[in-house]
Design a protein that fits this description.
Layout (H helix, E strand, L loop, with lengths): L3 E10 L5 E10 H11 L9 E4 L6 E2 L5 E4 L8 E4 L12 E4 L7 E6 L5 E8 L12 E6 L2 E7 L7 E8 L4 E11 L3 E2 L1 E6 L13 E11 L46 H35 L9 H4 L18 H7 L6 E4 L3 E7 L5 E7 L4 H14 L10 E7 L2 E7 L6 H6 L10 H21 L3 E3 L8 E3 L5 E3 L6 E3 L19 H11 L16 H10 L17 H14 L10 H18 L3 H8 L12 H5 L5 H6 L5
Parallel strand pairs: 3-5
Antiparallel strand pairs: 1-2, 1-16, 3-15, 4-5, 6-7, 7-14, 8-13, 9-12, 9-15, 10-11, 10-13, 12-16, 17-18, 18-19, 19-21, 20-21, 22-25, 23-24
Helix pairs in contact: 7-8, 7-11, 8-10, 10-11
Protein name: Protein kinase domain-containing protein
Pfam families: Malectin_like (PF12819), PK_Tyr_Ser-Thr (PF07714)
Keywords: ATP-binding, Kinase, Membrane, Nucleotide-binding, Serine/threonine-protein kinase, Transferase, Transmembrane, Transmembrane helix
C-alpha cells in the first residue's frame, strides 16, 4: 500500500463559531513534497514572516529560514526561557507570555489586501513560568475567534494553522481569555500563497482552519523543505550519505570535466549565442516601436476592458461604457497632483482627492488589485454607474483606463463616511443629533429603494455598510461602492453566493440602523461582552428585556422621543430576520424611518404652534408666517408631518 497524506481543513465563518467540513485532500507520497513547498519556503521570498517570540536576535536556521525577533510586532508581554526543553530548534527555546486578564494582546503584521495567507502559530509550554500549570486560552484573528489553545504536554508544541484572505492592509493575531495559566506563544509565521492555492468561493466570509493532518506510511515526522530554494549551497545533510543506491561520495570540488577539449565547438557556441542575443534585441526594439504606435493610434478610442473581465459573460457589457466619460490619464494626474493627497482606501484600491480644471472637486479611486475579482469590480462599477442616476447615489463622473491603470472618478463627498461620524475621531465630528441620524438613514434608504424599484432590472448592492454611505458638505447621505452589486434578471434569485463585509452580511440595512442607534461597530468584543459577539445579538437581548436605553448612544443629545427610537429599533430587528420572506421591503423600511422623523419634528414644535394646531382643522392649511404654505400650498401641517416627502 502506497504512502499517503490526508489533510482535513474546516471552513470557519469569520463572524462567529459555526464550523463545517470543507474537504479532504488525499495525495500520493510525492504530494507531501508539494505540500511543504507552500509551507517551508525560502527566506528570500517576499510576504513571508517568521517570528521567534521572546527571542532577542534575528538569525537564519539550518534550512535557510530567517527568523526575526517579535519585539517590533508587539508592545506588551514578557520574554521567558523554557525550563523544560525537548526541541533542538532555536525558536523553541523562548516564549513571550502575557497577563491573564480580560485584554487582548495582538501581533499586527503588514499584508497585501485581498491576498491569501497561511497563518501558523506554535505553543511550546516548557514550564516557562515554573508553575507546572498547563495554560488554556483563546486565539483569534483580529475580532474573529480562531480556536482555543489547550496545553496538555510541557515538551510537545501545539500547532495551529489557518488560511485567510486578507481584508485589510494589516492582519492581527491575538491572545486572550486565559482560563488557566498565562497566554503565551513560541513562534508566529505568515506565508503568502499564490492566487490559486486553497481558493474557495466563500473566502471573504470564511477562513480555513486546519482540523487534522495525518501521515499514513511515513517512518518519521521529519519536515520536507523546498529543494529549489537550496541553490546547491550550504552543507549537505548527513542523511544523504545513507542513501542505499549511492555508489561514490566526493568531498569538495573534484573538477569533474571531460578529458579532452573541443575549441572549435566552443567558438561556434559563443558565436551562436551572440547572434541570438542580437536578434532578440532587434525583435524587442521592433515590438516596442509597434506597441507605442498602436497605443497612440488607440488613445482616442473607446475603453478596452482587461482580458479577464471579458470572460465574465454577465448581464453587464462593454456597451454601457460608451455613455460614461473617459478621462485621459494626464487629466487625472493634473487634477490629483500626481496622486499626492490620499483620502481613503478600500478593497478596490486607494482613493485620492482631486480638482478638475473647471473647479469641480473629485474623488479618484485607483485600482491596486489587478486580480480577476478586481477587474470584475472595476467593470461592474463602470457599466452600472454609467446608467443609474439618483440624488442619494454618489455621482459617477467617468473613468480612465490607460498605461495599465484602472481609475474611477466620482464627485467628492466633503464629510467622508457615516462610519467616521458615528465612531468619532481626532478629525471627525461625531453626529450627536438623533434627527440628523434619522435623515441620513432616510437618504440611504431612498438610494437603495431606487436600486430596488426604480431600476430595470432590479439592482442589489450586496456591500452596504456605514463606510459605504458618504456625506456631502450639507451632511446629506449618498450610497457608494457598487463593485459587488448584482442585477436580478428575469425574476431570478438575488444571489447564490454571499458577498459583502463581515458584520454586514445580508441583511445589512438592519445592521446600519442599529449602528445609528448605538454608535457601535457591528462586531466588537469590547462593547458587547463575552456572550454577544455582534451588534444584532446584543441589541436583541436588550430589547427583549425592554431596555431600550441600553442600546442608545450615550453621546446623543438629550432631546429625542423614545417612541421614534423604539420604532427604528423594531424595524431594524425585522430587517435582520434570518429568512428573507419575513423581512420588510426597503419601501416599508423607508416609511417607518419617515414616521420616526415626523415624531421628532412634532416633538420639536413650539407650544404656540401646538396651540394653533388644536384650533385648526386637519384640512385647513397652517399659515403662521407663510413659510409652510410656500413649501406646499395644499398641504396641511398634519399632512406635512405624516408625509416627509413634502419636506
Amino acid at each position: 500500500m502506497s504512502d499517503r497524506v490526508t489533510e482535513t481543513w474546516m471552513m470557519q465563518q469569520q463572524q462567529g463559531n459555526s464550523n463545517r467540513l470543507l474537504r479532504e485532500m488525499p495525495s500520493a507520497s510525492a504530494a507531501l513534497v508539494l505540500l511543504f513547498v507552500a509551507f517551508s519556503l525560502s527566506n528570500a521570498q517576499p510576504g513571508f514572516i517568521s517570528l521567534d517570540c521572546g527571542g532577542d536576535d534575528d538569525y537564519t536556521d539550518g534550512i535557510g529560514i530567517q527568523w526575526t525577533s517579535d519585539a517590533k510586532f508587539v508592545s506588551a508581554g514578557q520574554k521567558a526561557n523554557l525550563l523544560l526543553q525537548n526541541q533542538q530548534l532555536q525558536q523553541y527555546t523562548t516564549v513571550r507570555s502575557f497577563p491573564a486578564d480580560n485584554r487582548k494582546y495582538c501581533y499586527t503584521m503588514n499584508v497585501r489586501n485581498r491576498t491569501r495567507y497561511l497563518v501558523r502559530a506554535t505553543f511550546l509550554y516548557g514550564n516557562f513560568d515554573n508553575s507546572n500549570v498547563y495554560p488554556k486560552f483563546d486565539l483569534s484573528l483580529g475580532p474573529t475567534p480562531w480556536t482555543t489553545v489547550v496545553i496538555d504536554d510541557a515538551t510537545t508544541p501545539v500547532v495551529q494553522e489557518a488560511i485567510i484572505l486578507a481584508a485589510a492592509p494589516t492582519l492581527s493575531v491575538c491572545l486572550s481569555n486565559a482560563s488557566t495559566g498565562q497566554p503565551f506563544i513560541s513562534t508566529l509565521e505568515l506565508r503568502q500563497f499564490n492566487g490559486s492555492l486553497y481558493y474557495t468561493t466563500d473566502e471573504k466570509q470564511f477562513f480555513l482552519r486546519l482540523s487534522a493532518r495525518i501521515n499514513f506510511g511515513a517512518e518519521s515526522n521529519a519536515s520536507v523543505s523546498h529543494l529549489e530554494d537550496n541553490q546547491l549551497t550550504g552543507a549537505l545533510p548527513p542523511s544523504l550519505g545513507e542513501l542505499p543506491n549511492l555508489k561514490e561520495f566526493f568531498s569538495g570540488n573534484s573538477d569533474l570535466r571531460m578529458g579532452h577539449s573541443n575549441t572549435g565547438r566552443t567558438i561556434v557556441i559563443i558565436v551562436c549565442a551572440v547572434v541570438g542575443a542580437i536578434l532578440i534585441l532587434v525583435a524587442a526594439i521592433v515590438c516596442y516601436l509597434f506597441t507605442c504606435k498602436r497605443k497612440k493610434k488607440s488613445s482616442d478610442e473607446t475603453v478596452v476592458i482587461a482580458a479577464p473581465a471579458k470572460k465574465l459573460g454577465s448581464f453587464f457589457s462593454e456597451v454601457a461604457t460608451e455613455s460614461a466619460h473617459r478621462f485621459a490619464l494626464s487629466e487625472i494626474e493634473d487634477a490629483t497632483d500626481k496622486f499626492d493627497r490620499r483620502i481613503g482606501s478600500g478593497g478596490f484600491g486607494i482613493v485620492y482627492y482631486g480638482k478638475l480644471t473647471d473647479g469641480r472637486e473629485i474623488a479618484v479611486k485607483l485600482l491596486t488589485n489587478d486580480s480577476y475579482q478586481g477587474i470584475r469590480e472595476f467593470l461592474n462599477e463602470v457599466t452600472l454607474l454609467s446608467r443609474i442616476h439618483h440624488r442619494n447615489l454618489v455621482s459617477f463622473l467617468g473613468y480612465s483606463q490607460q498605461d495599465g491603470k484602472n481609475i474611477l472618478v466620482y464627485e467628492f463627498m466633503h464629510n467622508g463616511t457615516l462610519k467616521e461620524h458615528l465612531r468619532g475621531g481626532p478629525d471627525d465630528v461625531k453626529i450627536t443629533s438623533w434627527v440628523k441620524r434619522l435623515e441620513i438613514a432616510e437618504d440611504a434608504a431612498k438610494g437603495i429603494e431606487y436600486l430596488h424599484t426604480g431600476c430595470s432590472p432590479t439592482i442589489i448592492h450586496r456591500d452596504l455598510k456605514s463606510s459605504n454611505i458618504l456625506l456631502d458638505k450639507n451632511m446629506r447621505a449618498k450610497v457608494a461602492d457598487f463593485g459587488l452589486s448584482k442585477p436580478v434578471v428575469d425574476g431570478s434569485h438575488v444571489s447564490s453566493i454571499v458577498r459583502g463585509t463581515v458584520g454586514y452580511l445580508d441583511p445589512d440595512f438592519g445592521v446600519i440602523l442599529l449602528e445609528l442607534i448605538s454608535g457601535h461597530e457591528p462586531i466588537s468584543n469590547d462593547n458587547f461582552g463575552l456572550h454577544c459577539r455582534n451588534i444584532v445579538e446584543w441589541a436583541r437581548s436588550h430589547m427583549e428585556s425592554g431596555d431600550i436605553h441600553g442600546i442608545i448612544d450615550q453621546s446623543l443629545d438629550a432631546g429625542y422621543d423614545l417612541q421614534s427610537v423604539w420604532k427604528i429599533a423594531e424595524v431594524a430587528t425585522m430587517c435582520v430576520k434570518p429568512k428573507g420572506v419575513l423581512r420588510p421591503s426597503i419601501s416599508e423600511v423607508l416609511k417607518e424611518i419617515q414616521d420616526a422623523i415626523a415624531i421628532e419634528l412634532q416633538r420639536e414644535l413650539p407650544s404656540s404652534i401646538h396651540h394653533l394646531m388644536s384650533k385648526t382643522s386637519p384640512s385647513e392649511a397652517v399659515n403662521t408666517t407663510g413659510s409652510l404654505q410656500d413649501l406646499e400650498q395644499n398641504a396641511s401641517f398634519d399632512e406635512l408631518l405624516m408625509r416627509p416627502g413634502l419636506r
